[in-house]
Amino acid sequence: MENQKALERIKNYSGRPVRIMEVCGTHTHAIFQYGIRQILPDTVHLISGPGCPVCVTETGYIDEAVCLAKKGAVITTFGDLVRVPGTEESLAGARAEGAKVRIVYSPLDALAYAKSHPEERVVFLAVGFETTAPASCLAVKKAKQEGVGNFWLLVANKTMDQAYRTLAGSADAFLYPGHVSAITGMGIYRELVREGISGAVCGFTSGEILTALAVILKRLQEGKPFAENCYPRVVTEEGSPAGRALIRETMEPCDAVWRGIGTIPCSGLRLNSGYRAFDAREAFDLPEMHSRPNPACRCGDVLMGRITPEQCPLFGKVCTPADPVGACMVSSEGTCSAYYKYSIR
Ligand code: SF4
After folding, report:
1. Using a 6 Å cutoff on CB, does residue 340 contact ligand 1?
2. How far is the CA of 85 from the centre of ligand 1 (A)?
3. How far is the CA of 107 from the centre of ligand 1 (A)?
């Protein structure tokens, strides 16, 4: 659908009020950047859901990483996680006190570091959805094949399908994330349709977002559950069988705690029995964390679409990207960070 045609369809929408949840932080930022909210009719509400892996990583996981760092492990991680507050401190705080925290660009970078520093004990923080999980799986598979004995994963990978079921009551339709869908394929959405859950897979250009929104509005008016692929140049029916095979080979489903949302059954991944020797929790005998997220932070309500970030009393005053209180303000893909960047002048 051409941009102009999609734009006209959206502007002329005359159906009932609807809520559309974008579950990808990149979409949240793109929607702000292209000014898409401003052209929506009053009856179309966009809700920013839990689409950023850092934002949904619970406080207890940060506490575990800090604990590992204090036990002498070299923590390797993507940059965003370093500033996420734990109960007492962040990884940045631990690093300031002398802990070794290294920023890497991929799990394979972390593995390469471990191989070149055999005297160090290296842990990679494996967070993220289906998009990034295969890379962690590949790293641990190579570590096993090559007999690397000083490399472990602290796994908090999550999968999206159960999250859609948990969030289904918060929206009439989802703007499904293009990156995740490139791995899952359309299969998971066909299953969701059978349960009455609707949405459209969406790319990241203004035209792709407008098209997906126009398609969602049209299909909602038709009144039947649907799953549309509006990002066919990247997302196929089958997705990436190789990526999913890597996940199956090294990991297994488990219940997972989502920051602010709680436990969602079977929405997480952990290393399976063949790879348990690479599980940092077991290797370092990590104790159970008694974590306490900041009670003033409303990340959970933001992630569930119950409030916008501006409705959090700390937004822009106590909590800013330079001094974040919650994970949603830390990550470059976080909802609070997007609202701050595009609405605070
Ligand atoms: Fe949490 Fe800050 Fe967002 Fe408020 S503005 S919900 S404190 S991250």
Report:
1. no
2. 12
3. 29
Domains and CATH numbers, the chain: 2-52+160-229 (3.40.50.11750), 59-159+240-283 (3.40.50.11740)
Q: How many helices (H) and strands (E) does the chain have?
A: 16, 11
Q: What does DSSP say about strands 251-258 and 262-271: parallel, antiparallel, or unpaired?
A: antiparallel
Query: Quick check: 50 and 261 in contact, CB under 8 A?
Result: yes
Q: How many CB atoms lie within 10 A of CB 21?
A: 25
| Prediction pTM value | 0.91
Q: What is the pLDDT of residues 107-117, one digit of tens each?
A: 999 999 999 99
**Ligand 1 pocket, 85 CB below 6 A?**
no
Pick from 55, 323, 328 the residue to mutate for probing ligand 1's pocket: most ligand atoms within 8 Å of its CB.
328
Question: d(Cα 186, Cα 240) in Å, to the nearest integer?
Answer: 11
